[in-house]
Amino acid sequence: MMYDKHLTFGTDQAVTATAASTDIVDLGVVRDIGNGEPLELVVLCTEAATAAGAATVTFTFETDDNSGFSSAATLAATTAIGKASLTAGTEVLRVKVPLGVERYLRMNYTVATGPLTAGKFTAFLAEERQANTAYASGFTVS
Question: Which residues pair with residue 120 across a beta bridge?
């Protein structure tokens, strides 16, 4: 799977408390992204989440007409995910980006029953999903 640095919300972003993504995507005047070739938001856990207590993280994909996100609208969100499920290599969220988004896009990470003592996430927009599974061939060559 390939993705563009300009369509990345954060790479290995350390999240210990509620925070927005380190980067936002500014669509400028072109807002019908994914029309014809749909884009997907991908959020990966790149370092296992740990906490002294039973911490959870909710991942929210947001859009707004201003870069301050003062009137943000939610495009997609997970339920609260427990730290035990946030292991390195886990795909936390993958959703298609809907048409009709506003100018700015970002991720928001909401930590509850925290703080986390460790946990890193990478979030980006990708054009093509690489989700193939390798299976045994089912035959032998003699």
Answer: 14, 47
Q: Residue 33 pLDDT > 90, yes or no?
A: no
In a domain, residue 33? The reply is yes
Q: Is 24 exposed, middle or buried (0-12, 13-18, 19+ CB in 10 A)?
A: buried
Return the structure tokens found at 13. Answer: 């972003």
Residues 84-93 pLDDT 10s = 999 999 999 9
Structural domain of 90? 3-126
Number of domains in the chain: 1
Q: What is the CATH number of the domain that holds 43?
A: 2.60.120.1110
**Peptide bond between residue 115 and the one before it cis (omega within 30 degrees of 0):** yes
Structure tokens at 61: 């994909």
121 pLDDT exceeds 80? yes
Q: How far is CA 8 from CA 23, 43, 91, 105, in A?
A: 7, 10, 15, 10
